[in-house]
Design goal:
- With 130 residues, this protein is an alpha+beta fold.
- The chain has helices spanning 5-18, 22-27, 50-63, 122-129; strands at residues 29-37, 45-48, 69-77, 81-92, 95-108, 111-119.
Length: 130
Amino acid sequence: MAEHANAEIFRRGYAAFQAGDLDTVRSLLAGDVVWHNPGHNHLSGDYTGVDAAIGLFVKLFEESGGTFKVEVHDVLANDDHAVALVTASASKGDASFASRAAHVVHIRDGKLTESWFIGEDEAAADAFWG
């Protein structure tokens, strides 16, 4: 059975993200996307619009010396939503971070319109990202 179109979109976005292909990632985001970045650190908050979301991704790569990655374990989707079960990890200096998470998105007309990343250990993420 073929995977739902929204699961394919989400997987394509993750593959592009891991490859550093932010042009493809940009093409999969709605112009008014709202990216909710969790936690209580300087990167936490809501990023509204494609440029703001891409800016967050650039910061994640820069602040981790390019080590930030998200390994996808599975993607589930329907006509309105997709959920990726993932492990996010990064390192910088002697510090490292890894956390399993659920990444939930709304998708409309083939574009991600809203995103929530729910990690298993937000305190560890806050300590890592500062």
